[in-house]
Design goal:
Length: 498
């Protein structure tokens, strides 16, 4: 307790005697904090007796504001004569104070001025091919911590972590020394070198290095390609010879693991320890369409990399003609569609304007100029059709900085898309409103299936790209259908409406 009765505090907290050596520097440290929400004041010092009037003040009077969190105070003290010393904290709070906390008082050796300085030019060179070895090189000290020339050294000790791995006995002052460590751990190793003379241990020199092989990065350029027989070929490329921490990875030692995904989205290991950068995986060809993709990791003796994820392939039964999607009330009516984006917003079904009056369409509005998004259909089977056509509607905004690009993925190959048509709104004329696009798909009717990809791009954050009433059907040469309603009976000689 410091004070709260109107009198300025004058109380010392003094340690027991501590024996200190001459020609050494010690660090005096303590924790101080206000004990309540009142301002406090203190100073600190040390001396050769318990009489604080003879103390050397190391920390001048210092204020601690009300409510201030505690802090650690540290100061270095140089001892010129060996003997017992006392360290203290002096409470100086005024009548505004209450009580002050002092804790974790310590006095530790920082420098022995007669002992050796740290070794110079410490380098640790790990094996460049990932083998578990490292070359440690340094120059033995030639001066003491106080700056005087050394006449001799008793030893220089080399540590890896806490383990002493080599001792150089009586090395020459200032000599170049080296040691080959053939048993470091794979990963980060901490090396410490300490020289000793008659005055004691010197300062430590420390170096941390990564030895062995690094954790590999994820594989690159994953490509999943449908083989149209219930299987797909998954290929990828090596992550390279530089690992997560920028250290060496031996690509020849890498093995690869392939993961699928279950119904809940959890990874399922399908192939383990592959030495080639490709494998065949299964793709369902019947049933409800769904997204199929795979992840691949690289692994060595150190660890397994993060996964890289492939492109998406659609599994399940392809949709037959006629195919129609009109996004009624902003919902999908014809199975699965995929979305992708370059920006914040997707090309999504919305409950909004509609070309066919069903209350819904698909719309993209960029969050910022230059954003783009893609809306992709499921698998559509054209086989068996004589003259398949794609017919859809889009909302034209002539003169606006927006584009709508239509592409075709043959047999799901999204790496080699067919460019069917690009509509540049800046080149459009006339009034804003719905317009119809028709594209002949007959050149692709022999394919197992196709996918339609609509990509919207806009430089104008107020201009949406909107599509609706998408139809893929077989436009036969004679495909007119008519209905007629007439009375059941008509009297001879009379007329009737039919």
């Amino acid at each position: 307790e410091t004070n709260y009765d109107g009198v300025t505090a004058d109380d010392w907290l003094i340690t027991p005697p501590i024996y200190l050596k001459a020609n050494c520097i010690y660090t005096y440290s303590f924790y101080v904090a206000p004990g309540s929400n009142y301002p406090e004041r203190y100073e600190a010092g040390y001396g050769a007796s318990t009489d604080p009037s003879a103390f050397t003040i190391t920390t001048k009077p210092t204020e601690i504001a009300a409510g201030e969190s505690g802090k650690r105070v540290s100061v270095d003290v140089q001892i010129t004569q060996s003997g017992k010393y006392y360290f203290g904290v002096h409470a100086l709070s005024t009548s505004d104070g209450y009580f002050m906390l002092v804790d974790n008082v310590s006095v530790t050796l920082k420098n022995n001025l007669s002992a050796p300085e740290a070794v110079k030019n410490l380098t640790v060179t790990p094996n460049t091919q990932g083998a578990l070895s490292a070359l440690i090189e340094f120059t033995a000290p030639s001066k003491s911590q106080g700056g005087t020339a050394l006449s001799e050294l008793e030893k220089v000790e080399l540590y890896r972590g806490e383990a002493l791995i080599h001792t150089f006995s009586h090395p020459a002052v200032g000599s170049k020394l080296s040691y080959q460590d053939n048993s470091p751990a794979n990963g980060e190793n901490v090396y410490k070198v300490v020289a000793t003379n008659a005055a004691g241990e010197g300062l430590a020199a420390v170096k941390t290095v990564y030895v062995g092989e690094d954790i590999p990065l994820a594989p690159t350029n994953l490509v999943l390609k449908d083989k149209l027989n219930g299987k797909a070929m998954l290929t990828w490329e090596s992550p390279g010879s530089v690992g997560e921490k920028g250290n060496f990875v031996n690509e020849a030692n890498l093995k690869y693991n392939v993961y699928g995904v279950d119904e809940k989205g959890n990874p399922v290991l399908q192939h383990e320890g592959l030495t080639t950068m490709k494998c065949e995986v299964e793709i369902p060809t019947t049933g409800k369409q769904d997204l199929v993709y795979f992840a691949v990791t690289a692994q060595n003796a150190t660890a397994e990399s993060y996964p890289a994820v492939s492109n998406v392939v659609l599994g399940g039964t392809a949709y037959k003609l006629p195919f129609k999607e009109s996004f009624p009330n902003g919902k999908l009516q014809s199975g699965v569609w995929t979305v992708d984006r370059d920006g914040n917003n997707y090309f999504d079904p919305v409950k909004s304007i509609a070309a066919d009056g069903d209350g819904g369409s698909a719309s993209f509005l960029p969050a910022k100029a230059g954003d783009a998004a893609t809306l992709g259909s499921g698998k559509i089977a054209l086989n068996g059709a004589e003259n398949p056509w794609l017919v859809f509607r889009y909302y034209a905004n002539p003169g606006k900085e927006a584009q709508l690009k239509l592409e075709l993925a043959r047999n799901g190959d999204t790496e080699n898309l067919v460019d069917l048509q690009t509509i540049n709104y800046e080149e459009l004329t006339g009034k804003a409103g719905w317009r119809t696009v028709s594209v002949n798909l007959a050149p692709y009717k022999a394919d197992s299936y196709v996918r339609l990809l609509f990509t919207a791009m806009s430089q104008d954050v107020k201009t949406a790209v909107v599509i609706d009433d998408i139809n893929v059907r077989d436009a036969l040469q004679h495909d007119l259908t008519a209905t007629m309603t007439a009375p059941e009976k008509i009297e001879m000689g009379s007329s009737a409406n039919v």
